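Hi R.,

Here's the chain you asked about this morning:
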Amino acid sequence: MTDATISNADAPLLAADGTPLKEKLALTTRRMKMRAFLLTVPLVLFLILSFVLPIGQMLYRSFHNPAGSNVMPNFAKAIKGWDAEQGTPGDDIIKIFVTDMAAARKNREVGKTIGNLATRVNYEIPGSRSLFTKTARRAGKITEGPYFDALVKIDKRWDNPNLWRTLQRVTEDYTLSFYLAATDRKYDETGSIVLADELYRIYLPILWKTIWMSALITALCFIIAYPVSYLLSTLPLRTSNLLMILVLLPFWTSLLVRTSAWIAMLQKSGIINNVLVYLQIIADESRIQMIYNITGTVIAMVHILLPFMILPLYSVMKTIPPSFMRAARSMGASNTYAFTKVYFPQTIPGIAAGTLLVFILAIGYYITPALVGGSDGLLISNLIADHIKKTLNWSLGAALGTILLVVVMVFYWIYNKLVGVDNLKFG
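And here is the predicted structure, written out as tokens:
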């Protein structure tokens, strides 16, 4: 009897279908994990196609530019082993250069014409595009050496060691030249990295301006949104819902329409200036320039981004019981003391969420600065778009975009250290 009891105790537990319960549990767990994975596949694919791949392509293009090697593949291999200290390459390398240039002159494949190489060199040495187009037209007539003398006869600029050092760099598929340009630096005639000429130092000043303008916009949004959110959270539900509709109303209006409205209001002959003149606050000849500058950009962006600060603050304030303030006042605390010691600390998660959201949106904003900023109120995002759409210098645009991404990630890391991402509350 005892042996039978022991034998039954050692036997594995079975499910209804006779399968060991342990195996049945493991099978069920695998099925649940597989079902959960299949449900997330569409989201994962969407994130990969719309987020990971574009950012990865941008990062790759910022240091990969095969324009030189595509146009002159043989010369790219030959110049790779050339010692730049020699001054100018030997006639054997020049011969390959002339042959490749003559072939590129006849090539009509996309990305392999002499114009692509001329554009790439022109990024490094402004004004050199005409040199390549001029030489390409005559390269086919150079049939015998000395080839270097023949090039110099076409244009004396070929007798410049810096030009050949530049060609050696631009025929490499991978380069940091675009990151140097994005940080207002360049290679000098000896190949050392130096600051660009003062005329071309534009990217770092605009990047710093973008950062402080984004911080200013975030601060103004917080100053305006905090009392509005407090009012919404303390008013009766019927009234607060009506006011919340007014807060959300901009989301139901086109961004282009809202920005255009600010153009009509802020210009010298606009509504605001007309009211100030009518009230005799300013003279008619002293109308304020509030558009196509930093002022217009800040005003328009604060209006557009304000709801992104109000909503997180309101969602946190709504959960704070009013009895906390009453209890503090009943124990002798003044209104100011009760607010700073009891109420305000409980709104920090909403403040953190709102400021982070507004700052990240502001630092990458494009449409509003492009319409109301003019040349003075442009942000770094406008320069990135300009290189992508107009100058077609995609590698420089990608390098600027990568730097902006790194700046945002650094600010996010600092924010996480100071506030903690776990403390954020968006709703």
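One quick note: The longest strand covers residues 185-187.

Cheers,
M.
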